[in-house]
Design goal:
Blueprint lengths: L1 H26 L1 H30 L3 E2 L6 E2 L5 H8 L1 H35 L2 H16 L2 H12 L4 H6 L11 H26 L2 H9 L4 H29 L3 H6 L6 H10 L4 H24 L7
Antiparallel strand pairs: 1-2
């Protein structure tokens, strides 16, 4: 009897404690949110931020020219090479230009597609279009890149379509790489813009038309400010993914290189991890600058 009564008391105590905890969490939503986010934030800090700090520290190390071993210390030699070596500066500007070109291409393609999906297409057609946009994401990155290598070749579809009208395929070049990267990242740009356009009430468009605004004025003064966060979100995806890419440029870029290729060559070929870390920091710094510039416009406030 004593053991059963003791167990009953312990169970009642546990129930009371659980009730108190649940009551406390219910009355304090901020505490509930902090506890909910504690695990992913801790994981982010340990895996991502700690890795970035390790990358920053490694960039100041050097490599022994005789043994090839990593020499811990503090040296600005790697960063000096970034600014003085013409190869690094050329590749940096080429990478930024490629990222900007791919972003502009994808935004220009995504805007009419997303607008048609959100405001013109029927529900059934909208569903088909969403599935069509998501389907390429199910395929392997390498499969899609090599498919475009076939399309861009001298006997590919582009050559077959363009040569009868006096043009030729862009081939394996920066233009071919921009086309391929634009195709790869286009779904990541369409979906945020489509989500933003869905939130734009059709009543706003009708009210603008009733007040005498033409189509272009409605798009520029009503629609564009409301979907700007979606455009920014899509541009962040395409810009950052292009900045860090190195496989596509190897497959369809010919002899051209981007920053990712320099990182790979310094790690896999030259065995110079500190120089690779210094080069890898360049896209990170550029992305921080891009996000800071976008944040000043206020476009990130509604993301």
């Amino acid at each position: 009897m004593k053991s059963s009564s003791g167990a009953r008391v312990a169970a009642n105590a546990e129930a009371t404690l659980a009730h108190r905890i649940s009551t406390t969490l219910y009355s304090k939503p901020k505490l509930r949110l902090r506890l909910l986010l504690s695990a992913p934030v801790t994981w982010l800090g340990l895996v991502y931020i700690a890795a970035l700090l390790a990358l920053l520290v490694t960039a100041f190390f050097t490599v022994d020219s005789f043994t090839g071993n990593l020499v811990p210390g503090f040296s600005l030699e790697n960063f000096a090479s970034l600014f003085t070596n013409a190869l690094y500066s050329t590749v940096t500007f080429r990478t930024i230009g490629m990222a900007l070109a791919v972003t502009v291409i994808d935004v220009l393609l995504a805007l009419p597609i997303a607008f048609y999906m959100a405001k013109v297409a029927s529900p059934r057609a909208r569903g088909i279009l969403v599935i069509s946009i998501l389907m390429p994401l199910w395929a392997s990155y390498l499969v899609k890149a090599y498919a475009w290598r076939s399309v861009l070749s001298n006997v590919g579809i582009f050559a077959w379509l363009l040569r009868p009208i006096g043009l030729d395929t862009p081939g394996y070049s920066l233009i071919g790489a921009a086309i391929t990267l634009g195709y790869l990242w286009l779904p990541y740009v369409i979906l945020p813009i489509y989500a933003s356009l869905e939130k734009v009430s059709s009543n706003l468009l009708e009210a603008s038309s009733d007040l005498g605004a033409r189509t272009w004025s409605t798009l520029r003064r009503v629609v564009f400010p409301l979907i700007l966060p979606g455009i920014v979100a899509g541009s962040i995806f395409s810009f950052s993914l292009t900045m860090g890419d190195y496989i596509t440029i190897n497959i369809v870029g010919g002899a051209n290189q981007m920053l990712g290729n320099l990182v790979y060559s310094n790690v896999g070929v030259a065995n110079n991890l500190p120089m690779a870390a210094a080069i890898a920091l360049v896209p990170v710094i550029i992305m921080f600058g891009y996000l800071s510039a976008v944040r000043k416009t206020g476009a990130l406030d509604n993301l």
